[in-house]
Amino acid sequence: MQTYRAKLANLPRTPVRIGNPDPARVGRSLEELYKLARNSSDPRAGKVERVLNDFLDKFANSLLPDQTKFLSRYQQRAVNSIHSQFLAMAEGSNTDPIRASDVPATLKSRFRSSDGKWLLQIFPKEQIWEQEPLARFVADVSSVDPNVTGLPLQNHESARQIRRSYTDASIYALAVICVVLLFDFLEPKHKVLALVVPLAVIGFAVFTLHARRSDISYVTLALTYVGMTAAISAFLDFRQFRDMLLSLLPAVAGCGMLFGILSLMGSNLNPANMIVLPLLLGIGVANGVHILHDFRGQAEGKYETSGSTVSAIVLTSLTTMIGFGSLMVAGHRGLRSVGIVLSIGMACCLFVSLVVLPALLTVIAGRRSTGKESGRKSDSSESRQSSAAPARPPQRKAA
Fold first, then answer.
1. What is the residue range of 248's domain?
2. Can you say how many angstroms the Cα of residue 65 is from the centroid of all Cα atoms in its chain?
3. CATH code at 278?
4. 78-120: pLDDT as tens digits
5. Are residues 292 and 350 in the same domain?
6. In the beta sheet, which residues pair with residue 112?
7. Is residue 68 within 8 Å of residue 21, measured between CB atoms?
8. CA angle 356, 311, 252 (to 5 degrees)
9. Is residue 135 part of a domain?
10. What is the pTM of this model?
11. 86 contacts 8 by C-beta, under 8 angstroms
12. Of the candidates 175, 176, 178, 164, which has an alpha carbon nearest to the alpha carbon of residue 274?
């Protein structure tokens, strides 16, 4: 750089003026170049040959003043172009370090704050559109400066908050659903003890934590309340508690099947399609409640799902799948993923509701009938034994 700068130190600021060229000399030089192009084996020489041939024909048919004027104008333009390039090289060969005053104000304002702090941009070496590379990049830059900011950190934090919000909402929804199901299945005499007493305990805990100004985790309180109500319900009437758990089976098992199918397909949940999870939870629980009420309403013996219940569940599931499944043809990838996830999830919940859950209820009904039949047999055998025993003769009174 210093060598180029020394050679260009005496470069004039304006291009020099060159005298008029000799048209005959230029013509002879172009004729020699034309012969070289014609005799060359390079495939690109054919185009050069045609261009030179056309130019030489037009140049030969021009008058001498026109030839001189044309060559002088072309020569001066070439000199001006070369001179501007040399000036750019002279300015760029400055070895002095760039100072802030050398940077234009419009560019400086983008990288320097009003208090004199400069912006330091850090670029990742991996594609941070995926979650794992993004998490590694955020962890690396945060280890250097905890106050670092930028679009990757905003995307990482927003995605984490979305996942946390969906998790909390799912816990709250599951807690409310469990309470509603217990209220539906429990006997009236057990509802107060199973639902109200844990609520009073949780209320007292909230009051105590608030009085001590301690942090209150409402998710923990919700899980604690559900755990207490479930334990009391199982102790008071395990059969009703079992029915509540069975009504949750289509939603829980259906979501589990959905996650497995998405893993096999290579698809992941994203902030767009995660919105369908509450819908799957609600419809899956509704299907389970319909099946359980149908089971409890039938007489003792082998359980068979009634046709009206099957028709209602299939109709509601198919209409939901058709409505949201139409999003699979959308051009937006987020909307398309919503349609795919919801259709697969509804199909999984429908399968569990009509195949898995009735099969379990059939087994339960068979055990219930077997237990009652064995109880009746034992009662009848005891009655036969008591009737077959001889009566004790009366004793004589002593004289």
1. 237-368
2. 75
3. 1.20.1640.10
4. 888 888 888 888 777 766 777 777 778 888 888 888 887 888 8
5. yes
6. 118
7. yes
8. 35
9. no
10. 0.61
11. yes
12. 164
